[in-house]
TrEMBL record:
<keyword id="KW-1003">Cell membrane</keyword>
<dbReference type="Pfam" id="PF03061">
    <property type="entry name" value="4HBT"/>
</dbReference>
<feature type="domain" description="Thioesterase">
    <location>
        <begin position="124"/>
        <end position="194"/>
    </location>
</feature>
<keyword id="KW-0963">Cytoplasm</keyword>
<dbReference type="InterPro" id="IPR006683">
    <property type="entry name" value="Thioestr_dom"/>
</dbReference>
<keyword id="KW-0472">Membrane</keyword>
<dbReference type="GO" id="GO:0016787">
    <property type="term" value="F:hydrolase activity"/>
</dbReference>
<dbReference type="InterPro" id="IPR052365">
    <property type="entry name" value="THEM4/THEM5_acyl-CoA_thioest"/>
</dbReference>
<dbReference type="GO" id="GO:0006631">
    <property type="term" value="P:fatty acid metabolic process"/>
</dbReference>
<keyword id="KW-0378">Hydrolase</keyword>
<dbReference type="GO" id="GO:0016020">
    <property type="term" value="C:membrane"/>
</dbReference>
<comment type="similarity">
    <text>Belongs to the THEM4/THEM5 thioesterase family.</text>
</comment>
<keyword id="KW-0053">Apoptosis</keyword>
<keyword id="KW-0443">Lipid metabolism</keyword>
<keyword id="KW-0276">Fatty acid metabolism</keyword>
<dbReference type="GO" id="GO:0005737">
    <property type="term" value="C:cytoplasm"/>
</dbReference>
<protein>
    <recommendedName>
        <fullName>Acyl-coenzyme A thioesterase THEM4</fullName>
        <ecNumber>3.1.2.2</ecNumber>
    </recommendedName>
</protein>
Amino acid sequence: MTGYLDDIRVDPSEIAAQEALYGPLTQSIRSLIDAAIRTEVDSEDIAGATAALTQVASLLRARQIDGSYGAQPSVTGVQRSWASPVIGVRNPIAPPLILEHEPDGRVWARFRLGAGYEGPPSLVHGGVSALILDHVLGEAVHASGHWGMTGTLTLRYRRPTPLNRPLRADARIDRVEGRKVYADGSISDERGITVEASGIFILPTGYAAAR
Ligand SMILES: CCCCCCCCCCCCCCCC(=O)SCCNC(=O)CCNC(=O)[C@H](O)C(C)(C)COP(=O)(O)OP(=O)(O)OC[C@H]1O[C@@H](n2cnc3c(N)ncnc32)[C@H](O)[C@@H]1OP(=O)(O)O
């Protein structure tokens, strides 16, 4: 049986054209999220912005897919990640992380998190750190030629993670045991590790390995 990661062929130039089209839209909405959290304009301007945004939403909804983006039959493996809340080209809640892949299988990214990711004042929400680490560990699993659903994700929050500071996420796989892939990773700031993670990613019963 196959499933989650079935792929189809699409002309790479078509994918690039779509990225050029949707990327700026997504970036504008990211900026809007931050603006909505931090604005102090008067009530008339808030009402004006609300009306304008309602109009924008109607414009975009005039033609749309049924259901979620990643489940579309015409979406390739590359594009499927565009819906990701961590790296998604089409997902404004993604910071986004731009992942780097090393030849030895390590995966890492530099990023910053702003007002939309706040937990304790001026600090990153612990669930946001978990989201990022789940994804980056999962990418390391995939880079190793395996894939699997997150079975267990264990986190140790060693120090608070600051908002609006340079951060880095790292992940690598530790070992493979049958259908289970064990991966480790961390988030760091300029002073070192703030959150450590280890995860067990499991190829579900009946599914084929990625490659
Ligand atoms: C084509 C190109 C595409 C490109 C694409 C790129 C993608 C690039 C990366 C994306 C990165 C995204 C990263 C986010 C990933 C999620 O967010 S996944 C979503 C969150 N996770 C879930 O929803 C998982 C829900 N749980 C399940 O689906 C099932 O319980 C599981 C985990 C698949 C296991 O089910 P199962 O296959 O029936 O497992 P089962 O036969 O009971 O057990 C198998 C083994 O695993 C162990 N096990 C079972 N459950 C667990 C568990 N929870 N914890 C630890 N061990 C367990 C068992 O003890 C057993 O061990 P052994 O006896 O073999 O030693």
